[in-house]
Write a structure and sequence with these properties.
With 209 residues, the protein is mainly α. The protein is built from 9 helices and no strands. It is globular and about 55 Å long.
Amino acid sequence: MNVLTRNYFRILREGAFGERQPIEPMSSFKWHQLRERAHEDNVESYLPGSEEPHKGLRGLSEYKKGRRHKNIEKAEYHAIDTSIHSLDFLELIASNVHQTIAGRTRIDGIIEIGHFLRTKGDKVDFIKIEQWLHKLGIYNIAQLHASILVELFGFTPDEVPFIHRTSHKAVRLATDTHKLTLAFLPYYPAATLHSMFYRLHKSITQIEE
């Protein structure tokens, strides 16, 4: 990572989770670029001295639950040990996965996953979460998102118990293009191809419009 990217995630780690991080010197031009990126990622409110109010997770509501997701919810509502917090967490993860497949990994969404884990994680049934992620076919991308929390935001593996290993490729997903690209194809073939076809279909639709 270059100095701008290192500082960017250190500042977000401090602003979002209150963990003070060392900041490296940068030129005024790079600081301007950092602020521009924060604006693009909807995380301006986490910058030091910012008076920008937190705007919520704009755009994550684009996620529409499919049949499998709805079936999971229906079964859970009728379960003896119903866990509403687990369903809420599943929807948050699925919304973020949808954004990545659509072509952009949402840093504000990843931070929101981290907030949920640290404030409500003790109320989540992670055995169910892991099973549901596999049923929805989104476990691998959810693992990448959780790895971003570990690799860039200082979370410990114990804080993200629904995955069994972290991936250094998460750093590339978060810091380079924000997209699942051909570089991820050998490791996450289904997700990568789904992402590519989704963006192709979206582009064609926009041209037709």
